[in-house]
Every structure is written in C-alpha cells, then in structure tokens.
Amino acid sequence: MSLLEEIAKRRTFGIISHPDAGKTTLTEKLLLFGGAIQEAGAVKSNKIKKGATSDFMEIERQRGISVATSVLAFIYKDKKINILDTPGHKDFAEDTFRTLTAVDSVIVVIDVAKGVEAQTEKLVEVCRMRNIPMIVFINKMDREGKDAFDLLDEVEQKLGLTVTPLSFPIGMGYNFKGIYNVWEKNINLFSEESKQHITETIAFDDVNHPDLEKHIGEEAAETLREELELVYEVYPEFNQQEYLDGQLQPVFFGSALNNFGVRELLDCFVDIAPNPRPKESDTRIVDPQEKKFTGFVFKIHANMDPKHRDRLAFIKIVSGIFKRNTPYLHVRNNKKLKFSSPNAFFADKKEIVDESYPGDIVGLHDTGNFKIGDTLTEGEVMNYRGIPSFSPEHFRYINNADPLKSKQLYKGIDQLMDEGVAQLFTLELNGRKVIGTVGALQYEVIQYRLEHEYGAKCTYENLNVHKACWVDAEDESNEEYKEFKRVKQKFLAKDKQGQLVFFADSMFTLQMTQQKYPTVKLHFTSEF
Ligand code: G4P
Fold first, then answer.
1. 87, 90, 181, 197: which has the highest count of C-beta atoms within 10 A?
2. ipTM
3. Where in the numbering of this chain does the Tr-type G domain appear (predicted)?
C-alpha cells in the first residue's frame, strides 16, 4: 500500500468528557464494534472516582494495563482507528491537553441529564482554539434527562459550538424508543437486547410514511415528525468541510451502556472524520504525505513495570514512514537515535512494528533522552509546536527526607518532570526547589512514585504563591527590567529550561507589578 493510501486509512482521535459522562463505556463499545475485544468489561477504567489518591495508586498498580489503554487501535470498515486516552480528572487536565496535540479529531461525550459540565467546557475550549473537528455524543438516553432541543442550545451556548443533529432521539428515559438517523435516514429501535446484539435498523427515507406509526406508535410518530421538521428548519445542513474546519459540530444521541446509537456514531465517524492533518512546526507546516519521517513526543510513561526500569515515549507520526532500526535526529539533543523495538498499540496488546504511518502512535523505549514535546526527524532541524506548559496553581517546596537517597530523589524528580507530572522551579535567591502543579493530587502522586519507583522520600512545605508567570523583556538590558529583577529577586525562579519565572503571591501583586514595569512581559504559558 502506498503512503497516501495508508494515510487515507487512518483516523486518530480522542474522546473527551467530564468524568462519569461515559467515556470509558463508549470506548469499550467502539472496541466491541471493531472486533478488538470480545466482551464488555475488558477496558479498565483509569478514572479517579472521587478524586481519592487511593484510586490513583490503584491505577498505578495497574499501570501495565492502563498504559495499554493509552492508545487503542483497531480496524473498522478497512479504516485504522487510533483512540488516544485522555484522563477526565481535572488534576490531570494537562495530560489531556498534551494528548489533544496528537489527535486529528475528537468525540465529546455529554451526559443527557447533567448537560455541559465544567471539564467538558475546558477541554472543548482547547479543541476550539485549535479548530479540531468535533463530534458530540449525547449519552445515557435510556435515562430521564434534558429535552433534546434545550441540550442542543446548551451545547451551542456553553461550548460556543455550531451544532447540527445527525441523529435524533425518539423519547427518552422510560419512554426511550430509539433514534432516527438523520445521516443515514433510518430508524434504530431501542430494546434491552441491543446490549448484547447489534440491532437491526429500519430504513426510513420518508418519516411521513404511515409505517412509522407501526414501529413507534402514534404519539411518538407525531412528535418525531414535528421535531424533525424543527431540526431541518433550525439547524444548518451538515457540511463536511465546515466540520473539518472546526466550524460545525454534528451531534449524535444514544446510550453507550446499552450499545445503542454507537454504531451510527462510528459509521458516520469513519466516513467524515479527518485523516492525519498537516502540523505546524517552528519553521514550516509539515504535510503527512511528505516522504521524510517526522514526529513528536506527546506523552511519557516511566516505570510501567517496576521490575524493569522502563520508560516509554509515545510518538505521534506526523509525516513519512517511521522505520525500525533507522537512525533519526533527536532535534533538541542534536543526536541520532535508532530504535530496535518500537511498539504499536492495539486494544489488548502491544507489538513490535517495522513500519508505522502518519496518524499512528509508536512507543519508544527511552533511557532518558526524551521530554514531552521533543521532535524526531530524518535530519531536518525543526520543532513541532503546541505543547506549552501551563502556569501551575499549586506550589510547594520539596525537601529531601532521606539524605542518603538524595541522588535517587533528584533522579526521580527529574524523570517525573520529564513525564510532565508537574513543573520544577529553582529559586534564584537560595536554590531551593519548588514543585508547581495544576492539581493538588499530583503532590501525593509524586511522593508515592518517588518512594515506590526511586526509593526516595520527600516532604513538602507550603509556599504562598498565587500564580507563576514566565518573564521576558523586549530589551533585557533596559533599566526597568534590571530594576524588576533586583526588586523582585526574592520572587524569581528558573524553570527546567532555564527560563525566568516570577512568583506572584496575589492577584494584586500581579497587577501592581504589571503596572509598575510595563515593559516586562508576564506570560501564563511557557510558549510565547
Ligand atoms: P467516564 O469514563 O466518562 O468517567 O464514564 P464511565 O464510562 O465510567 O461511565 C460512568 C457511569 O455511567 C458508569 O456507571 C456507567 O455504567 C454509566 N453509563 C455509561 N453509559 C451509560 C448509558 O448509556 N446509560 C446509563 N444509564 N448509564 C451509563 P457507574 O455506576 O459509575 O460504574 P459501573 O459500576 O457501572 O462501572
């Protein structure tokens, strides 16, 4: 098969949702359709239910499994589908943001009763900013929930999307009868059996046909006709280009748990979802069809198996063909590396592969060469963009609790930071180390992992910081910048890349500083 054909076959996407909306269930049902797993319950949930650390530790124990679920691949209708897992818990949102740099489209899952929730808003905003094509799946139609039109309004208003329903529910909850598939023009009737089987659909080009009553009863038929009329009147006609440009978002309804409406979603998805898309680097835009291989690291997982100190870097292939045992340039280190056992991921296993194509994810065994965001090429010097660090919201000093293990501690911290678990800052004044995180849960995770994976112990000490911002000045020799650095010396630190960071203890300080030193620029992400 040619490179072009391989590219045309690939669909790499992520499922995003607020925890509990049904992401894991939907993933599992997609895998069932793809024949990638044989029974429900095979996909381990990696979610943290009540934000409890114990859940996270449990997940850590199952890392071997949960990492297999980081990327799930299967073939459906001759398309290679790659699902990238995205943690739903807000403390791990950064991990999800980074994964979103490696997807070509997303499916957004929304709970019909809860509607648009906080985490959905945040994640969709990131996708919207990047014009990532999105399909919305309204889940749990077997339960009482919000009116379909109200929900569509909510999705438009809260998420800033322009939607068009490609399926429409017939009733809901106790009265849920099925869905009308606007895309394929047929009706899929809901029954309890659909859990086990893929249900038969009834073609219905014309909902005005009197047979409709036979299938769903008079009342439901009348309501459906009225509602569909409204749908055609109010919502724009589906247009694939608009969807691909991130300007229009098709909506499907269903019940993942009951395996209902999932096939419709998947069939439409393989038809309309994008192939691997071109990606911007710091020098140019790279097209997947280019012959030369390029790719970037979007995720690192260390110590999946505590017995073998392994570390896996996940690479998204952007262009060309990635080949085993071929030297590639690690751009940041200016070093050639070759990989004898690159892993490809399937739903239930990982396998060594000889060749991978744009859209695919390969896992490379890493001995500490990689950091998130690193670019690999055949020799071209360029870096893929789009994985900024976000300004952390929690700050603590980290202290070594076992002086005999300081080497282990620093190695552990170093590696965990490379994985992107948190950010490390070193105070300019006294060299003390500060860990900044997006969520409070990370501190426990770091402590646990330092102890269990590196044999090191740490303690924390609170630090009163409201926000950390990256600092730069138009002209570093200017007097104002020098004065800023002198006056604020106590509040300055360096991040791991050696960039200057300012710790503001309150919103007020931040504002005052900005007013007093207008030429000093304060940034809330590391990429500026
Ligand atoms: P998440 O990954 O987005 O966090 O959600 P997950 O799939 O784990 O689903 C959250 C809960 O919602 C689960 O119940 C799941 O069974 C349920 N659920 C998912 N889809 C549907 C649906 O279509 N209809 C109904 N009624 N429920 C659905 P749980 O009790 O939290 O977990 P479990 O004990 O069933 O695993």
1. 181
2. 0.97
3. 8-277
